[in-house]
Amino acid sequence: MPTLNPYSNEEVNKYYNDANFIHLDKIPNKAIVICDQQGIIISANLDFCALVGLEVSELEGTQMKADLFLKIGILKDANSLNKLLNWKRRDYEIEFLKKNGTSVIIEIKKERIRDNNCAFFFNDITKQTQLQTKLEAVTIKLAKLNEDKSRFISVLAHDLKSPFNSILGFVTLLKENYSKCSREEIEKYISYIDGASQNAYNLLEDTLAWIGAENGKFKIAKEDFEINSLILAALKDLSLIAHRKNINMCFDNKDQIMVYCDANMIKMVLRNLLSNAIKFTNKDGEIHITIADDPTETKVSIKDNGVGISEDSMLKLFDIKGFYSTKGTELEKGTGMGLVLCKEFIEKHNGTLSLDSNVGVGSTFTFTIPKIA
């Protein structure tokens, strides 16, 4: 038997006879009700009876109206059914509101059949509608992610260009003027090249770490580690950059404190927070690193007396969608990715990263690492 259009009058007429549509139940997987021109129900199949919770004998001779569908729920738009009955529409998606607050979406199509009667075909499309809504949401989210990543790649390419331009520029100066330069000048150029190279390396390291974290490939490997040594290592890595601005980095390395952490992640957090403090601290400024330890957590604070951050800017700092970045006191640049990465890595330790800042006074970044794994 050929497959017929699920909403065609041909299919209903095929099973029509004078015995009051007794063969409607042979049409598979369809809730069907037959009405006359006034909307009085002539017959219905078992699927429709199950849909409304009534027997055929209870339906016959009654008016097709919203009250029939109370088992499903309350019509959200009471006029939608009337539009079908009055032939203002031949198809409609009608939403019913259930007592528990959820919705049921029923697709109804209307066709004229023999004797000028009407066949109504009912199909519950709630799951399809929900799936379609989810697919649309995922599509929008993916489009936004692609847009964010494209913009990030553009920013990254621009920021990588800056240190490489510096490296190439100073290398060219050295090549052209090596025989004329004094020892002090050569050391100065080498220092600039070293700083630019370190900036480029750190930027690439952060990028690879962020990509790994986003793809779920950056696995956390915790062990007991002395956080003092991680702070000292980060201070050593950034000592040259701090020296150029004559910034004094103070760390009272008294008590040796153990934390349960991923050492590489925490070192990266420390380096980013210290680098950020140096970036926004003026020449001859100070940065203080302190550790507070109690039975529940270890708290590390990095405080500077730099330019500070406005409230509006603070709201943007940890937003991955924005990659918010501003130039430092010496016009240093960045992608804005570092703080986003710090927040993500601290959260992987079930800790918190907070900021307290006042414009013109300075900023304090504080992160915690819980004692419980």
From TrEMBL:
It catalyses: ATP + protein L-histidine = ADP + protein N-phospho-L-histidine. Residues 155-373 form the Histidine kinase domain. SUPFAM superfamilies: ATPase domain of HSP90 chaperone/DNA topoisomerase II/histidine kinase, Homodimeric domain of signal transducing histidine kinase, PYP-like sensor domain (PAS domain). PROSITE patterns: HIS_KIN. Signal peptide: none annotated. Pfam families: HATPase_c (PF02518), HisKA (PF00512), PAS_9 (PF13426). Its EC number is 2.7.13.3. InterPro entries: HATPase_C_sf (IPR036890), HATPase_dom (IPR003594), His_kinase_dom (IPR005467), HisK_dim/P_dom (IPR003661), HisK_dim/P_sf (IPR036097), PAS (IPR000014), PAS-like_dom_sf (IPR035965), Sensor_HK_Regulatory (IPR050736). GO terms for molecular function: phosphorelay sensor kinase activity. Keywords: Kinase, Phosphoprotein, Transferase, Two-component regulatory system. It comes from the Bacteria. NCBIfam families: sensory_box. This is histidine kinase.
